[in-house]
Amino acid sequence: MRQKIWILLCLVSAIAIILVSLARHQSPVSFDNPPDVPLSQQPADPVPTLPKPSPLSMKLRRAPAVVPDRLMADLEALAFDRSTPDSRSQSREYIRSRLLAAGWTPQSQPFADGINLLAKKPGKNPESGSILLGAHYDTVPGSAGASDNGSGVAVLLEVARLLQDRQTERSLELAFFDLEEIGLHGSFAFASDPNLVADLRGAIVVDMVGFACYQAGCQDYPSQLPIQPPSDRGDFVAVIGDTEHLPLLEVFQMEIAANLPPVYTLPVPFKGLLIPDTLRSDHAPFWYHGIGAVLVTDTGNLRSPHYHQSSDTPLQIDRAFFIGSAQRIADAIVTLLESQGSLQTNSIQTPPN
Fold this sequence. Notes:
Layout: H1 2-25, H2 68-77, H3 85-101, E1 107-111, E2 114-121, E3 130-136, H4 146-162, E4 171-177, H5 185-191, H6 194-197, E5 200-206, E6 237-242, H7 246-250, E7 263-268, H8 284-288, E8 293-297, H9 319-337
Parallel strand pairs: 3-4, 3-5, 5-8, 6-7
Antiparallel strand pairs: 1-2, 2-4, 6-8
Helix pairs in contact: 2-4, 4-9
């Protein structure tokens, strides 16, 4: 029932977008065919007034360095069509074996037609709640899903290894979602379970972080973005979050390292209903339930010609970009795990000196 309501809201928002577009531009909005005018010549819509977060009580914490060979080994091991029940079961068994080898205790969350795989490492302070790191492990039929979303699964497995013995204030939860490709079913099942989200303070969802492009014009954007895009090259990591939990976005901007991919953060108001392209992954059900969440992505079809194609193989992965993206995610997760207090906008206080 909740999924039907969510779909209805998305349909209503789509109609609203068309009406607004007709009023402002006298032509319907197109997601797939952006203007041919160069980005530098396109007029930017006025930047909306967003709430400003209070100074963060977080300090950047570096995670251990990711191990590139392990990261690539996981991605390559999962590079096969993961759209059928048998192939998704094979994927789960691989993920389960890697988690067990890293000292975690994975649990299954069955739901209609699918199974999520979950694991948790308790923190030192139960009152601080937990941070979720999630990624879907299924693919569309006919695709090996290296970037979509073997890359996300590989990042989760590497974080599990890196933080196996690290004591943190908050608990770390890992969620490998099933059936994202046919309607976010796995993340809806997780976010709808009050027992699973009772202690959750925020979620980081990783969906496609393996592809980069560097030629001019290779990066597209949804036409409803209220701000000027940063570049027409796809050499950055996009982090998309709700305006009610801006600290989850800001943790990805706390320090820029020269050897890591740049980050473009997009704060989204109104749960994304005015920009439907921002609701296409497993962070959306968390927004729907009022839980802070961000999506970390290479932007998928807005950049990659291999999106949902048989060519989405490890050969198309940009190794340096993928490794750098994994390190950025690991650093952000460690920083959040070491923080305390609420992660809502305007609720973070600076600790006394």
